[in-house]
Specification:
The complex is a heterodimer of chains A (about 190) and B (about 350). With about 190 residues, chain A is mainly alpha-helical. Chain A is built from 9 helices and no strands. The chains are: A mainly alpha (about 190), B alpha/beta (about 350). Chains A and B meet through helix 3, helix 4 and helix 9 of A and helix 1, helix 2, helix 3 and helix 7 of B.
């Protein structure tokens, strides 16, 4: 299994260094600022979207659920990191490294967890926008493998963790409805929702 | 505990988030015509707003990656990023709302010319509860033997009688005598005291020799529309009622974000300072009053871009058949712009003329 994981890693990571354009694009995607900020901006815009108040309220609920899903996913991620540490690919292998050397655990992938928790939470409420975020989250995960800082299994685990957190927050956890309702009502009183 | 590691990186990321969020808000403002979020004011075009959004977002990213070498070394962790993005979001929203309010205020002042009665013949009316201005057609004095139809016009509580001016002008041009009523100070607008406002105006008009007491209509705007309908339901002397953008239902007095389609954030705060609006709408119980109008002619008019009482919500308050017949919408107009719209003014004047046509002679 580990061997297959590494073979898959090599398949992607060996593409690095062959094209300056592709390397440049991956460097843009792999850092902690570009895609996270872009995804957050999409949430900001989605908060104000909607032709009428009912539609806007559904969108705002989706945004709040996505933020809560991200929070829950991060807590679970920190717990995982406490009990399991996996060295980064560049520690044990010769890799094409296009990024700095992170020192935290490789498993599960933090960016994949963040990206997929937001994307799946939104996808469960709005398919089109959710699909866009899923593409961005997938690119985020792929870029981490391409640049040599994550194994594919790290990204898959992060995606599952983010997706599971989103599913739980959107579909299973009813008690947050009142909190979400309170936030939206307060926002409406302030003419911001 | 937050650890920002590099102050330069933290400041740059804060600025990136700030600028891109301002850009995102401009995109939203352009897309949904939210003048209260638009930095380029009410005279803006959506294309300008979108262009500004693209410039801010793309420009901020280009600047950030060009000026921040720390992007490719260990830097901010997720919690620091979330904190900075959140703080930048609050600042960007506050900045947008404040600047937009200032821009709107300046443009509003530039647009509003000298306030006056536009050369209409008028006289002030002040009788106990009733205060207002009576507008008379030029030829009234020469036709004293033939009393005219008259309209009591009531603006929204914060609009002032000046907001009635375009409609009053068209009504007077059509030969109506118009009494524009002043609500008085906002703190004195209370239920059931307000119920006396229109009946006292109607009583004043019926005492005049130049008014035909059987041909008195009422016109109300905003909350004035709700009061006009309620008064018409109980005062048999009112022969016709026309309401522009009445609230109809208490829930419509809480428009939320949509109010920024109509006004700046500062104006929205001022608008909300009249706290009795919702209570008054509930007390006036307009849908019940509509069912008690009986034989009286009545009409509701909304702008199809109304950001406070969406025309669809107003339509849903009425029976389908009644709404089809009695509710008109004027394309391209909002809650505040409708009374100033030439289309609405002509519609109002023509409607009253048609209603009184069998009795009315010019």
């Amino acid at each position: 299994m580990m061997s297959f994981d590494f073979q898959l890693f090599q398949l992607v990571n060996n593409l690095a260094g062959r094209s300056d354009v592709l390397d440049g694009l991956m460097r843009l995607l792999v850092n902690d600022y570009f895609l996270t900020t872009t995804m957050s901006l999409i949430l900001v815009i989605f908060w104000f979207e909607g032709q009428d108040q009912d539609q806007r309220e559904r969108n705002q609920e989706a945004v709040l659920r996505a933020i809560i899903a991200l929070f829950v996913a991060n807590i679970i991620l920190k717990l995982c990191n406490l009990v399991y540490f996996r060295p980064r690919p560049f520690v044990d292998h010769e890799v094409n490294l296009l990024f700095y050397r992170p020192t935290d655990s490789s498993f599960p992938s933090n960016p994949a967890t963040v990206g997929f928790s937001l994307a799946i939470a939104l996808w469960l409420c709005n398919r089109r926008l959710g699909a866009l975020l899923l593409v961005l989250a997938t690119l985020f995960g792929l870029s981490r493998i391409y640049c040599g800082v994550h194994y594919p299994s790290d990204v898959i685990a992060g995606a599952l963790l983010g997706g599971l957190s989103a599913y739980l927050v959107v579909r299973k956890v009813g008690f947050i409805d009142s909190v979400i309702g309170l936030i939206i009502r307060t926002g409406r009183r302030l003419y911001l929702a | 505990v937050l650890n920002f590691i590099s102050p330069h990186l933290a400041i740059n990321y804060f600025l990136l988030a700030f600028l891109t969020i301002v850009g995102a808000l401009q995109f939203v403002a352009a897309r949904h015509k939210l003048v209260g979020l638009a930095l380029v004011g009410t005279a803006w075009r959506p294309a300008w707003g979108c262009l500004l959004a693209v410039v801010l977002i793309v420009g901020a990213f280009v600047w950030f990656f060009a000026d921040t070498p720390e992007v490719f070394v260990p830097g901010l962790a997720g919690s620091e990023l979330a904190f900075l993005f959140g703080a930048a979001g609050v600042c960007a929203l506050a900045f947008t709302l404040i600047v937009s309010s200032v821009v709107n205020e300046v443009q509003h002042r530039e647009r509003s010319g000298p306030k006056g009665d536009g050369g209409l013949r008028h006289e002030a009316v002040s009788l106990q509860q009733l205060r207002g201005t009576l507008y008379l057609p030029e030829d009234v004095a020469s036709l004293k033997s033939e009393p005219r139809a008259a309209i009591c016009a009531l603006p929204g509580p914060s609009g002032g009688t000046i907001s009635l001016h375009p409609i009053v002008t068209d009504l007077v041009d059509e030969g109506f005598i118009v009494l524009a009523i002043d609500w008085g100070p906002e703190e004195e607008i209370r239920y059931p005291g307000v119920l006396g406002l229109l009946p006292s105006a109607v009583a004043y008009l019926t005492r005049r020799d130049d008014v035909n007491a059987e041909r008195i209509g009422v016109l109300g705007i905003d909350l004035g529309g709700d009061l006009a309908i309620r008064s018409a339901a109980t005062d048999p002397q009112i022969a016709a009622v026309l309401a522009l953008t009445p609230f109809l239902d208490q829930s419509n007095t809480k428009p939320g974000l949509s109010i920024l389609k109509e006004m700046s954030y500062l104006e929205a705060i001022r608008w909300s300072s009249f706290r009795r609006r919702g209570g008054l709408v509930a007390e006036l119980a307009v849908p019940d009053s509509i069912s008690r109008l009986g034989f009286r002619s009545w009409l509701l008019i909304y702008g199809d871009q109304d950001g406070i009482v969406p025309v669809e919500k107003a339509r849903a308050t009425l029976d389908e058949e009644v709404a089809r017949e009695k509710l008109k919408s004027v394309p391209g107009e909002g809650h505040l712009s409708l009374p100033r719209s030439p289309v609405a003014s002509v519609l109002v004047a023509r409607w009253f003329k048609t209603v009184f046509s069998d009795q009315y002679s010019v």
